[in-house]
Amino acid sequence: DRLNKIIENANRYNTRISLTIIAHEDDASDKFLNCKNCWETLSKNLSNELEFKKIKDVNLNFEYAEFTDDITADKYTEFVGFINKRLKEKFGNDQKLVVSTFADALVKERVTKIPDVANVADAIFIMGYDFHRPDSEKAGPVSPLNGKGVYAEYDIETMLNDYLSYLPPNKIILGLPYYGYNWVVKEGIPNAERIPGTDDIGFSQPQTYSAIMDTILEVKPQIKWDDLGKVPYFIYKSPSTNSTREVYYENAESLRLKYELIRNNKLLGVGIWALGYDGGYIELWNLLGEYFSNGKQ
């Protein structure tokens, strides 16, 4: 099938593939973390699946919608250590366990307690996005390079410096977005106030890079640059509802600045949420190739 072909081709080109374990329901995650027999079951099933698919790397992606207490975070750290130990016993030290974490895990009570969880994982994947969301009070950068305290309470540079004070750069993967958000706003100004959506005027919503490029081709807006966030944005009137809309997103120029940050800090690498969101547009692929292929960082 298609997955087997992908794995086969990846192995041929010496490209590592990671199986991702996702837990995005708070109650289910709580029950699992409090059930050590469940850890055993997962460990066995995971090893069997990895062996069957001829891969060995794993990404743990536990995302709580709400903040968590120390007890829950400590249990998660224990679970990460347990799984990593079992994986190393089965596949050897070359096996890699990566843990995904919210960008603000060092300043808010998240299930990934840094640096504890970093001490029992091989690498940390920082989800460096969603600094603004569709339900934010105002439109703004999804992954702002700067602007802490102005547009958002955090930014990428501040976040990365915080992480680097706790763990070495070769344990950090910086995750970046191939998407943006398209808000219904009160007026056509930068960082405009979001207004509640309706069936008549439309709703604030996420858009992939491909969808954003299609929107640009359709409405031909003036592309502007956010000097603090170091990202592009544009404002336009919806052809279908006549509502004022504002879009913040990433393009090759803004991603290049973040790739330079990765290179200059000698991080383990970059992660993308998500490859394929660029559709048939090739500029982001070309930029990835420029920075991260042929033996580059």
Automatic annotation (TrEMBL):
Coiled-coil segments: none
Residues in GH18 domain copies: 1-295
InterPro entries documented for this protein: Chitinase_II/V-like_cat (IPR011583), Chitinase_insertion_sf (IPR029070), GH (IPR017853), Glyco_hydro18_cat (IPR001223)
Membrane-spanning residues: none
Single GO term (MF): chitin binding
Pfam families in the cross-refs: Glyco_hydro_18
SMART domains associated with the record: Glyco_18
One GO term of the biological process aspect: carbohydrate metabolic process
PANTHER family given in the database record: CHITINASE DOMAIN-CONTAINING PROTEIN 1, CHITINASE DOMAIN-CONTAINING PROTEIN 1 FAMILY MEMBER
Protein name as catalogued: GH18 domain-containing protein
Species name: candidate division WWE3 bacterium RIFCSPLOWO2_01_FULL_37_15
